[in-house]
Amino acid sequence: MSVRCGTMGNMQLYRDDGVVLRTQKLGEADRIITVLARKTGRVRAVAKGVRRTKSRFGGRLEPFTHVDLMLHQGRSLDVITQAEVIRSYGAPLTADYPRYTVGVAMLETAERFTPEDKEPALRQFLLLVGGLRALAEAGHDPRLVLDAYLLRSLSVAGYAPALEECARCGTSGRLPAFAIPSGGMVCASCRPPGAASPGSGTVSLMGALLRGDWDNADQSDRRHQVECSGLVAAYLQWHLEHSIRSLRHVERV
């Protein structure tokens, strides 16, 4: 778990770093901050007085910010006592609407993949930090960054789509269809009604994004990128059993 740093009164202090996923108002001056932390997992904690002009936290507890936190355990919600910025991704993302909408979708997805408070999720945390960094550095199309992040998050959660062998019978060779409920590509014999028929370039792109093969991903055709995005979004929301509301704002064409 996270580093323990002693006590404050009867409360246990601990320190961790994490990415702010979202905030919500509490009372007249406070906010509840939801953080995906490196060691602790998802944490919901109160930042007291953060909405006051002279708050000691300033703008350190805004979404897209990677922060080093000191917290003490509360009965229902922990309390943030210190916050220092490690890196803020907010400025480059809010200045670019396509990247901003992708970033919001990534934050929402990270929260959906970590539904239990204080359940360690190091690999999801590292994926989110890496995804935000790639998004902020603007080296790749933001839609490709999002799809890579979504596919890898699915893989970490145990839901990686089958791309090289039939998801139902394990047969390799020609796989003409992508069946979301089955878990990925399927052969002709296992193809259920309503399965999609993606182009071979789309399937290759999905594999490249899963592997982190950016040379091939960046050179892929736009039509394959659009088709890939649609399949990945549908596959993600099937396995989460919940819609990612922010995906509707991501530009796909």
> What value does the Rg take, in angstroms?
20 Å
Q: What's the CATH first level of the largest domain?
A: Mainly Alpha
Q: Strand percentage, roughly?
A: 15-25%
The description of the largest β-sheet is: 5 strands, mixed, barrel
Strand adjacency order, main sheet = 2-3-4-6-5
Counting DSSP H or I runs of 4 or more residues, the number of helices is 7
Indicate the mean pLDDT: 93
The CATH superfamily label of the largest domain reads Recombination protein O, C-terminal domain
Assembly type: single chain
Order of helices and strands: EEEEEEHHHHEEHHH
CATH architecture label name of the largest domain: Up-down Bundle
Overall structural domain count: 2
In total, the number of strands is: 8
Derived structural class: alpha+beta
User: Roughly what percent helix?
Assistant: 25-40%
Weakly predicted, low-confidence segments: none
| CATH domain topology of the largest domain | de novo design (two linked rop proteins)
Ends apart, CA distance between termini: 43 Å
Verbal overview:
The protein is of the alpha+beta class and about 250 residues long. The chain folds into two domains: about 5-90, OB fold (Dihydrolipoamide Acetyltransferase, E2P) (Beta Barrel), CATH 2.40.50; about 90-250, de novo design (two linked rop proteins) (Up-down Bundle), CATH 1.20.1440. About 35% of the residues lie in helices and about 25% in strands. The strands form two sheets. It has a five-stranded mixed β-barrel. The chain has a two-stranded antiparallel sheet with strand order 7-8. A hairpin with a 4-residue loop joins strand 7 and strand 8. The model has no long low-confidence stretch (mean pLDDT about 95).
